[in-house]
Amino acid sequence: MNAPAAASAGSVAANVDEVLESQPIARVQRGAIEYVLLGTAHVSRVSADAVRAMLERESFDAVAVELCEPRYQSIRDPEAFRRLDLFQVIRQGKVGLVAANLALSAFQRRLAEQFGIEPGAEMKAAIDGADVRGLPIWLIDREIGVTLKRAYHSVGFLDRMSIVGGLGASVLTRDDVSEDEIEKLKEGDLLGSMFNEFARESPQLYDALIGERDRYMVARLREQASASSARRVLVVIGAGHLAGMQRELASQNEIPRPLVEKLAKVPPPARWPKWLAIGVFVVIAGAIGFAFTRGTRTGADALLAWTLFTGGFAAIGAIAAFAHPLSVIAAFLAAPLKPFRPGVPASAFSAGVEAWLRKPRVADFDTLRDDVAHWSGWWKNRIARTLLNFMFVTLGTLIGEYVAGFHIIRNLL
Predict the structure, then answer these.
(1) Going by C-beta distance under 8 Å and a sequence separation of 6 or more, which residues neighbour residue 3?
(2) Is residue 93 helix, strand or coil?
């Protein structure tokens, strides 16, 4: 090798070592496999460089990333949202899940705007690096929807409202992330960061967002390793998972598959909200029936109050979402009939009409992720506005039922 070439090679090697010098790295030997855990920050361009540098400096048989299948596909195929079927989302009751994913996307976009880095750049660097070297990619993280549902069910009512508030705040706030928050982001996890101090102060929420995922990801690593001949695996994870996964790799002895299934299981919904809703309707229906015993006029007034309050508040929800006039009418007509079609909310009818009348355009899919990064974009984008319509009409119907019940019973006393 001539002198200039040798100098150039030495410069590259020095640069690689310099990039990796300050990065959190842990090496764990488990059986015949060495796991090299590289902790990354979601707001640092250096993290993406560190992934490239690690792949350049060392040889691996596989690359594991802190991604689930849907997030992996969104990196592989940024146009995936073009195939979103709104009618299916509404019919299958997945509006909340899609909205939560968009809220996370909004949080990522806000960080991207502030720091000038592509969301998930470090994961994309790992995927691209594995592709170039022909290495298998192991997806080890749990789906965000499962994590959010388990987190939601792990805490009480007030804490659940904080989760919803955290998701909402990620959409509505436009303030830059503070210096203190930046440092926490560099040491933590994207989902945990969305809920800020609340995640750190609630042991149950912290475990669902961080601890459970540490155990899940290690179980997935072990499961993938058992079906592979890999002996050295690069594991690219958020820095907040580094210590926990290092401990789990050293101590976890449960059979991987049952543990993965256990941690991926969504807890059944609590029964009391359903029984409370039934109880409220029974009381209101009984009050309306009792009103008829006092005279046809009294009964008719009670029935009219039920129709106007439930339909009216549902319609207000649709109006708040800037829905089409026919979607507003659909909400008004469907809400009073809710007891006669359990399982099919008025919001499904209204959102369905909205999606039919204002079919998403190509531009709506192209700009969806950017639009939801700004609160006003939720009303501008037809896809996001349909989701808002569903959620606002659901809330309006619920408020209308309680207001109607209070009004009817008060007039009978």
Answers:
(1) none
(2) coil
